Amino acid sequence: MSICAVIPAAGRGTRLGQGIPKIMIEVAEGVTVWHLLLRRLRPWTEHVHVVVSPDGAGPFRELAAAEIGAGTVSVSVQERPTGMGDAIFGAAGHWAAYETILVVWGDQANLSPDTVREVVAAHPGKGLTLPLVPMAEPYVEYELSGGELVRVRQSREGDECRPGGLSDVGVFCLATEGLRAAWERYAAEAAQGAATGEVNFLPFLPHLSRIGGLPVTVVPVADPDEARGINTADDLAFARQAYQRCRS
Description:
Blueprint: E1 3-9, E2 26-28, E3 31-32, H1 33-41, E4 47-52, H2 54-63, H3 65-70, E5 73-77, H4 84-90, H5 92-95, E6 100-104, H6 113-122, E7 128-134, E8 140-145, E9 148-154, E10 166-168, E11 171-175, H7 179-189, H8 204-210, E12 216-220, H9 233-247
Parallel strand pairs: 1-4, 1-6, 4-5, 7-12
Antiparallel strand pairs: 2-3, 6-11, 7-10, 7-11, 8-9
Organism: Nonomuraea helvata
Pfam families: NTP_transf_3
InterPro entries: GlmU-like, MobA-like_NTP_Trfase, Nucleotide-diphossugar_trans
């Protein structure tokens, strides 16, 4: 099974006040979120594709110059911030030749290498495979019924997520056969998010399950800290402390 990791990292990290994309933020001297993600993904993927903003393109290409030069990493630019779905599927030309894509958010500094390994091992080569973790107060909640993913609730779009619900850890494994065409059909008819005005990627997943009939494989994750991306100064401090604990 050939796998391409796809990292949408076109955000500008404005809430952090760092002036750089979150994927380029240092968690230790000389160690960025990018370096951590690459270490976790490299053993399980043939290629890594990163989607960046116009402002982030030059700095990121410099940061990842060695891997880009070796042909193991490629970069594309999302010209306008129109959402994760557009970032992922706008880059389809870079990943469509692979059998599977492993989508990973560009701020997941706390992602465990064990989770990546278990997701790849569990993926049956079709449908979608999701690592999910129970959260006391989930920001995003996945609702399953009888092996079917029926809904994804998103706090940022005004949905109410239930205490103890299942959340993702910023990793999504999908078979590529027919995937781009399925997204194009979905995006043509899907409602825009109530708050963001975007056609979001996450509601596409239950669409694939309910409408597309694709199988859903869930990989249980025990540690809710894996779901914590870097969105605030507190998140960044937590990621830095967690990195130091792992190093000690």
